[in-house]
Structures are given as structure tokens and as C-alpha cells.
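Working notes for the structural subgroup meeting. M.R. asked for a predicted model of this chain before we commit to crystallization trials. I am recording the input and output together here so anyone reviewing the notebook later can reproduce the run.

Input as submitted:
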Amino acid sequence: MPELPEVETVRRTLLPVVGARIDTVWTSGKPLRLGQRVPVAGLRALRGRRLVDVRRLGKYLLVDTDGPRALLVHLGMSGRLRVQPASSPRPPHTHVALGLDRGRELRFSDPRRFGQFDLADRGDPRAHPALAGMGPDPVAEQLTGAHLYATSRGRTTALKLFVLDQAVVAGVGNIYASEALWQCQLAPTLPAGRLTAAAADALAASIDAVFAAALTHGGTSLRDFVDADGAEGENADYLVVYGRDGTPCPRCQRTIRRTVLGGRATFHCATCQRRR
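Returned structure, recorded in C-alpha cell form:
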């Protein structure tokens, strides 16, 4: 699933649509995440509106119009949001196509249909149920160790699952949780409530660092991810532990292990990342 760096990369490559006018609306009529339908009537009401900004909150994109509404998009597991010539064939599994002026279409495709394409209040997007209660965004806002330390008090859940909780940190997913925990040498199975203030500071700094590196490389493309121009990210070449099971740890040369935690593959070094 695309995480914060991938969604931020899409946001940046979507910025050229700012100023475009929505002329036409097409939808496939098929439901997306959890059977949710695309709000066809709401989208049609946007015809004639212009796109004025592209924002992001966690793993969600917000495309603001010059009216009170914004497009709310989650890429799910396999979603792509691209701007393409209206004259070109729509990709398979396209579910929304907004015809823009100058012969362009903003197209949302999603083979697995775990994504979301909805509308939100432009002035108060966090009022949308999908965004309510979301934690700080490490790129748009400052993520501090103090926040992680305070939020972890009394929590018995494994530290990796704690970091994956979008109410704790918005935008962290499986790839970058493994990478950040390796960088700050914390065990993914450590009970979150045992996180010290110093370790919380180190974890916040590690999350910032792995996100910054991933953004430099255009995100991580493991299967489906491409940016709005169709380009794949290159960060997979720079991952240290994710997907590297059986290879030597770059820090201590012991073997990287793959385990399952909370139903998700977890990659770590049992020597470097001792429970502490």
C-alpha cells in the first residue's frame, strides 16, 4: 500500500493540474473500498469548478476546488491517480475520469478496488470520517518524540503496530515502520509502553529520516505504485531491511529476519534491535 512518501510524490506530480477546470465526469459505477460508491452526483456538481490546490494528509490526497468541496482520494493497495490526454485509452480498471480543459483527464484506476474516491469539506477536511482522529503528519507537521512518548504510555501493543496506528502517526505503513525501527535500533515487538523518552526522540527522528530519503528517491515502487506522470519510484533500491530477509544486516552483518506481526511481514535484525 502506498505510504506517505508515495502519496506525497503523487501530490507533487499532480501540481500542474492546479488551475484546470472540470468539464466532464465519468465513473465506472463499481464500488470501491468496503462497497463504497463514488459520489457521482457530488462530482457532477463540480463541473465548471477549477482545481486550486493539491494537499495531502497522511495517506490521503485532497484536491481542492474553488468551491466548498475537495476531492478526497486514497490509493488503497493498487490505486493510481494520473493526468493523461483525454484522447488516450483509459487504463483498465479506471473508476473515475474527470475531463479537464486543455484536453486532459484526471483518472483514478484501481484493479483491487481497495481505494477511495470521495468528497470532503475543503475548509475542514478532518471532519470527514476517514480523517477524523488522525495523528500528526510527519511532513506537513512536526512529529516529536514527546508526542510518541505521551501517546505510548500504558500501551501494551507491539511498538511496530503502535507506529502503524494512524491515530498515532499519519502516513506510516509497513515498509517505513520496519525501516525506521531498524534505524533507531528498536525491536518491533517491544511493548510500546516501555518506550523511553530518549528512544521516542530517536524514533521520531528515524521516521523523519526514512521519509526524507524516500521522497528524495520518488517513493518505493514494489508492485503498483507510480506517480501522476506514470514514473516509478526508486527507493526500493535503498531499503535497508524491508524485503531483505536472509541478507546481512548492514550494521552488524548478522542476518535480517522476516517475521509476522499483527498479520504483516516484519523485517528486522534481532542483534541490533534488541528489546529495550
